[in-house]
Amino acid sequence: MDKTSNNDRLVVDPITRIEGHLRIEAEMDGNTIKQAFSSGTSVRGIELILQGRDPRDAWAFAQRICGVCTLVHGMASVRAVEDALRKAWRTNAKLGVAIGHPAMTSMPKGPLQHGKKGKGHRHSGTVIGSLSEAEMAIPQNAQLIRNIMIGTQYVHDHVMHFYHLHALDWVDVVSALDADPAKTAALAGQLSDYPRSSPGYFKDMKQKVKTLVESGQLGIFNNAYWGHPGYKLPPEVNLMALAHYLDALTWQRDVVKVHTIFGGKNPHPNFVVGGVPSPINLNASTGINTRRLVQLQDAITQMKTFVDQVYYPDILAIAGYYKEWGTRGEGLGNFLTYGDLPTTSMDDPASFLFPRGAILGRDLSKVYEVDLDDPSEIQEFVSSSWYRYSGGNTSGLHPFEGQTNLEYTGPRPPYKHLNTSAEYSWLKSPRWKGHAMEVGPLARVLMMYAKKDAAVQDIVNRSLSILDLAPSALFSTLGRTLARAVETKIIVNQLQDWYDQLLDNIASGDTDTFNPLYFDPANWPVKGQGVGVMEAPRGALGHWLVMQNGKIDNYQCVVPTTWNAGPRDPNSQAGAYEAALQDKHTLHDPDQPLEILRTLHSFDPCLACAVHVMDETGEERLQLKVR
Amino acid sequence: MNEELIFITSNADTTGNVIPLLHQIRHALSQLLAQQEETTIDLRRLPLSASEESQLETFLGHGEVKADIQALGDTVVIESRYTGVWLETHYNEEAEIMGKYVHICDCPPLIKSQPEDMVLSLNNIVSDIQAMSDTSTNDAAEED
Amino acid sequence: MSLPTLNAQLQASGISRRTFLKFCATTASLLALPQSAVADLANALGNAKRPSVVWLPFQECTGCTEAILRSHAPTLESLIFDHISLDYQHTIMAAAGEQAEEARRAAMEAHKGQYLLLVDGSVPMGNPGYSTISGMSNVDMLRESAKEAAGIIAIGTCASFGGIPKANPNPTGAVAVSDIITDKPIVNISGCPPLPIAITAVLVHYLTFKRFPDLDALQRPLAFFGETIHDRCYRRPFFEQRKFAKSFDDEGAKKGWCLFELGCKGPETFNACATVKWNQGTSFPIESGHPCLGCSEPDFWDKGSFYQALFPWERYKSKPGKGGQKHAGKNA
Fold it and tell me: Which family does it belong to (chain B) (predicted)?
């Protein structure tokens, strides 16, 4: 942190243990944050790079937006293309227009179509007017495999976030040296049945820490805030948490194999428009066979065991020492979800495990409907961002009409301070009906709680009662971290259900994983637009796609960290990070910004995701209304 | 049995590297006898199909010695039915193969005890004997 | 400052010499070193001091860091990762803000001329404000940190060749590390992300021999980038027999046939995915059913659709490869 001569301005840059480049500047009143400013400081322009590409390729580009929540942009992209095609097929069917276009003949030819038995998939050059919903369906197996991959991403991301990105805000590494291994083992034994809890195990762990500290080369633990009075855990809890930090590192290597089985690797597994790339053939030596299904079950079991025996008990144990963080760090009080994890299809939000909706002013008695296609609902503003709108920077644009031309107006590096009264971030400011909204685990858990989801209400109420906290404590830094653990519990149980359904499907003779209708450009409309929706681990994610003549015409991503980390809008409304930091943050020592890190990390920032976009200047945007 | 399995195991083997490899092993064995020159062949660096690899292993067969070493995952060392020709396979803790070698030598290096480990074990045996005699002295004392 | 050797660290963690020799044997094979070099490798590596490593993140997605966190054979590799002092790494370091920058400067000062610089992400040259850390532009931070470094490892295709930020129309003027730093040894470990084992193996080689391993024309370690995916692909026999999947989930796909006609870039992509595989040897893209994207090659983003075949199959007979001629023309 850089405390400067005008001494009321505090800078923390880089914010570490996050994805990407985030800077916080704060106006201080003594040791208390008065005004906080959140800035994304790096841009790549991936949406401009997507212009003019084959929509089937888009997932690979979009996925490189982020390698942490690695599958979410690939998934959203594939869904955006599929949504655009379905909407166009339905609209054109009503109008009786033929799909396919002369321009298509100059396109890279899609693979030949092979009609699938009993499914009546169309061949190239189909005359529309008769496509049924069943013909357009993404195969059930593909839907389940996608859910399993998304679910795995959640469990992997949330556990790693807690141990490797967030825990060191609460766990003092050096204090672990004072722990008694036998007492640590006794404590761990009380918390759960996790087998790696012997006194010998913790003795070895303590020795490891000792060797590291005595070497004088602390590596990643160097120069941190050890001994800060904000650390409240007894030495034994610190030692246990540190042991689990290392266990989680080993565990995560194993569970991502789910992505490798279906997508060939992690980070950046592969996807395909129209389904999933992996064929199912139980007797083959490749693709999804019996051996793969056994591996998959192993990984699902491993996920559930670790979440039930380690992650969730640790969250409760550690939270018990930090209850005062249940009263600060919330801020906006507005929550938004797009919804995800369909039982039937993406066209049926009623079947989602995570519902879609909006909550305003912490009022859980009313959940508002959200329409992603309505140009008046979701809009992005750039009045505080280093972008230029051709129609002026004061009004917002819906993502279908979105544009982003890079225009850096910040101070020339190297700089001390940003001009926070003007433009100060590579992030835009998204708003829902003009409201700044928080997205992410807390928004989802509140949405499910408000919609009276029995499983969520049960886990939330049980957790609160163990911690002896009132429900109002959810609206806080602590509540956000607790909500992440709650939804991880929900997901690990759901993973087993999806796996069982996949097996039932295969057993009944259905092995389809791909609908070729989507993949052949000859079946594409001349024009189309669609939105690919996801609940990413960090919150609501949407990719808005416009395609024309078989190419991408416009591509806009509005991502969770843009919602949360975005700067002020034209009405001077703060974004979620800014509001949260302005919510009762008094720093013990402004030179050691531990309190700031706690609240920021409770959001799990992902900046590469949040910084994006731009269009070719002044190009006229195609507007195709699908009604 | 299903068609593609038959197909894969019967037709997909095209490297033709097994016979040249066996000649190399024969040559290395004669060098070992003549000049005490040891050879290690790294099978990972050699294109071999799965069935060629098992063809090679079947040809070499099992001789008199088999050693299981537990060192961060198993290592299995087998002397083939041709004395002086050893097959060594390293596994990691996940039981996945990390490396596979043919050694032409009188004793593969990993079987030998290492001086560094022996230094430690000398320390250990000294303190263990001490602990044992302490215990028996104490027991004797208590009986008195 | 007296730094512990790896041998001392192994002893402290109860790792036997025999185990270490096994690690050296498998690492030598990865690095394509002769097995006769194992004893030398063990001696030199065992006596190597714990080096300081500074890792700079520029225009990146953190996929490269995540890839390393998924390292193969955790216990063996953690030996090496415990044995480097990662003094600056945004994603996992505990300190933030000024304390983080202080740690970087302190490491560079204490280990002048000795520390290794790792970089992921490309560097935007269009405007210094396109990417900054602590108010400093990426290019300034790279130059400052490279000045006293012993060598640089560019991790991933973005740092190696510019990667996705450099893809058309390269909105931020992104370039590779080697476009900026020209007076230091640089090794490129490309891939989006790169194979983690390649990074470990290069570190081991550096610790042992105090230099980088043999490199190809694009400065990539030959041991990992000496052959194409196609050369070592288990589906290669189907290519030779002209048995191709024509669509996802068709009969050929279900039988595991070659993905060449679905756009597989394996024949022109140098990397070791087909032998080392991903995530503890679990699988790799082709094995899961998706064609190779070619992600370790320069400008792979701009070589046409991922699903368009590289060239007509018949043309391949003029390219190196064993079975091509045998079948050429038969099915033309």
Answer: Belongs to the HupH/HyaF family.
